[in-house]
Amino acid sequence: MQLAEGQNFIGNVMLRTLQKEVKVGSGGQAALNLSFEIKGSIREDFNQKNWERAYNRHDNIFRIKIEVTLKSSRKKILHSENLRKASLFWTRNPKLPHRIWALIIKDDTSFYPSSIEEAKSLLFDVEKRFELKSNNLQPGNQNICAGIRVSWGKHYYSEPSELRAESNKVELICTE
What separation in angstroms does the CA of 162 have from each of 8, 26, 82, 93, 149? Predict the structure, then answer.
């Protein structure tokens, strides 16, 4: 896929269910896994050379807001908001050949990547698990899909952006 300079998109979107059937009102849960990647110029520009330039201009925190809405037909059944952050800092780690490095904060856990590719993967590759309570579902066949919205602000190496995508539909059979 050929992109214009500065263009970003959400790719490899996949919604999966671990079970096809769930009993409504039983207090059970249906587990869904959503995965996708943020691709384009933001991923390419998130590199050590730009980290150092941004750090020198006091632009040392990059935040990505990720919103996911699970829908059955047009009815919202679950909404989730998450933040991912990259904090640029001065390091004296002798294992790293660079003085400015990134600490990635994902799901309230800090990760210290050992390579630039690992930092990109931690920040831009999303794998999320959702538990749907069977009480929120109606009896019958439910076609569930995920609406995704990703946004970030202006930084030295990026313009503000908002991306949207929709996942495939998975069928969930809800019995009484």
Answer: 9, 39, 15, 35, 7
Angle at 118 between CA 115 and CA 123, to 5 degrees: 130
Quick: pLDDT tens for 116-144.
Answer: 999 999 999 999 999 888 777 778 888 99
> Six-digit token pair at 67?
């919103």
Burial of 40 (0-12, 13-18, 19+ CB in 10 A): buried
Give the dihedral of Cα atoms 76, 12, 150, 168; nearest 10 deg: -10
Fold held by 8-175:
Immunoglobulin-like (2.60.40)
